[in-house]
Amino acid sequence: MKSRLVIRAGVALAGVALLAACSGPTGTNSQTTQNNSTPATGDLKVAVITHGTAGDAFWSVVKVGAEDAGKQLGVGVTYNSDGDPGAQAKLIDNAVSQKVGGIVVSMANPDALKTSIENAVKAGIPVITINSGSAKSAEFGAMAHVGQEESIAGEEAGKKLKAAGKTKLLCVIHEAGNTGLNQRCDGARTGFGGPVENLQVDISNPTDIEARIKAKLQSDTAVDGVLALNPQVAVNAASAIKGAGSKAQVATFDLNADVVTSIKAGEVLFAVDQQQYQQGYLPIVMLKLFKDNANTLGGGKPVLTGPGFVDKSNVDKVAEYAKNGKR
């Protein structure tokens, strides 16, 4: 019950932010706003810096969200990403040296980014963390965190898999050192209440991902559920299940067009949807409101964008938005 209350609170806060995006301060674009008012002048520049890899479908949606908010509010948004924590820290340092008006950063490896984020805060640049690293966000001086609580999302996923009759799970971790992924598996273990085994794979090698999952299913026929933590891995897992002749079923974190298709086909039970478009969009709104009106959101707690769940009951509706890169 506690987790549901937290989730509802996060959704409510997200709703407030979205309303602010529609009716709050306007920016510096040359076009008039929808209500035909004259845009306010301003020069807010925001650097969005994530740990996503090039071409990753998940992070492309985050990027679209940030850029959409920037266009609508007249905020200059630059997006950069690097999966290497040291390189990501340098991107933050570069943004500080450029004296941007705000920084949005994901923290898959918080400790590696600590000094860079604290230096940004010392320089008077408001920082909003997104997606991962919420436990260290306030400690590092960030004004808010936007995302889902991974342990809560994992726990809810574990409960759904248990309700689906699964008895042994394989939780596939695709990025070494990403604390959020381990939190997802730990949460799933709590919610599932049965045996959950972790399997480490490399997201950059899809062929090896499929081979490793297939080998595990062949060696341990008791595994009847595979929890992927990434859409690409989910597709690889579904293929591995077919290759192994296993009766296991896949569930996954996060959503893309392939997962939508797989849910429709019955190859994926459900997707845990953290609505990453909002993780790009809402921080731009929050930084704009902070600059123009000294507003803050969250009250020191994360602004939650998930978990939501996409399954056969609602996949057709969500699919409409996945086509335009916003889900």
Automatic annotation (TrEMBL):
CDD domains linked to this entry: PBP1_ABC_sugar_binding-like
Cell compartments where the protein resides: Cell envelope
Keyword list, A-Z: Signal
Domain of life: Bacteria
Cellular component aspect of the GO annotation: outer membrane-bounded periplasmic space
Primary localization: other
Span of domain Periplasmic binding protein: 46-288
Residues making up the signal peptide according to the UniProt record: 1-20
GO molecular function, one term: carbohydrate binding
Matching PROSITE patterns: PROKAR_LIPOPROTEIN
Family membership: Belongs to the bacterial solute-binding protein 2 family.
Entry protein name: Monosaccharide ABC transporter substrate-binding protein, CUT2 family
UniProt organism field: Lentzea waywayandensis
